Q: What sequence folds into this?
């Protein structure tokens, strides 16, 4: 009886082991197919986005040349048309850049590249990147940095994408007033803060938990023509985490918003709440 029972159990174990092996092999094959599908999708999105971006950038270059008078003086009606074309072109370019940024993150193709960064110089670069972003005529965009901010070790490209998206988000929802981009240093916690404050529409308290979700929008039928597709803040959140930083939001409906990114001077340092020293102001009305 014992021998018969043992043989029966051995047969059952063998059969179950065989089934598990077959299931594991099927899972492996399906996983590899999914990886290949994901890889092909990422390559397709990157290729299409690149093919769209390249000619669009050429078109934008010609528009800038026309606005700068390369073909002679423009009548006011001609300038208005070109300004409108540039506005819509920059909007499309911003969408393409967002798709490319997200695609790189999803595909794991956005490694962190640590380097020493001069913070005031970085703000100057961001100022030049964003000064042509379409915004309401009554909105002033200003940049300023406190004196004495040390060199930091971080990822320059990721910081520029973070600030570009935060400035772009502020522009989309600010119809008048001021958008202020500010950098400061907290020697106690060895952190540098980058804040983008606007006087725009603000965020409802009930919406705050969702603003960093991919493709999230308060209202899909938002009346703002340049409201975007809900990628910018999601990308910001992921990039901030990549560079060992934190992002905080303060907002009141109808009063504007303030997004603050804090990064350590060195990636090995703990990030804690910094203070807010006063600083020297720079403006898009002058040289950065």
A:
């Amino acid at each position: 009886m014992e021998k018969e029972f043992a043989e029966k159990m051995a047969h059952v174990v063998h059969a179950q082991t065989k089934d598990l092996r077959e299931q594991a092999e099927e899972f492996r094959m399906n996983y590899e197919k999914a990886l290949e599908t994901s890889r092909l999708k990422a390559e397709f999105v990157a290729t299409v986005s690149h093919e769209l971006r390249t000619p669009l950038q050429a078109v934008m270059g010609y528009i800038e040349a026309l606005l700068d008078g390369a073909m002679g003086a423009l009548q006011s009606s001609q300038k208005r048309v070109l300004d409108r074309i540039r506005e819509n072109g920059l909007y499309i370019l911003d969408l393409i850049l967002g798709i490319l940024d997200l695609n790189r993150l999803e595909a794991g193709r956005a490694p962190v590249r640590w380097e020493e960064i001069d913070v005031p110089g970085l703000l100057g670069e961001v100022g030049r990147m964003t000064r042509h972003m379409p915004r309401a005529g009554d909105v002033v965009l200003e940049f300023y940095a406190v004196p004495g901010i040390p060199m930091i070790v971080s990822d320059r490209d990721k910081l520029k994408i973070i600030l570009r998206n935060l400035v772009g988000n502020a522009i989309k929802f600010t119809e008048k007033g001021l958008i202020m981009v500010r950098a400061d240093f907290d020697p106690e916690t060895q952190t540098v803060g980058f804040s983008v404050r606007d006087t725009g529409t603000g965020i409802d308290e009930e919406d705050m938990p969702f603003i960093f979700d991919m493709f999230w929008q308060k209202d899909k039928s938002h009346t703002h023509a340049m409201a975007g597709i809900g990628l910018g803040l999601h990308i910001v959140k992921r990039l901030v985490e990549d560079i060992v930083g934190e992002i905080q939001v303060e907002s009141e409906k109808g009063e504007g918003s303030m997004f603050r990114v804090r990064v350590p001077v060195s990636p090995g340092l703990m990030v804690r709440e910094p203070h807010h020293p006063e600083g020297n102001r720079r403006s898009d009305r002058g040289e950065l």
Observations:
- The chain has two domains: 10-106, 115-283.
- The longest strand covers residues 176-186.
- Helices lie at 2-67, 76-106, 119-130, 156-172, 232-242.
- Confidence is low (pLDDT under 50) at residues 221-226, 270-288.
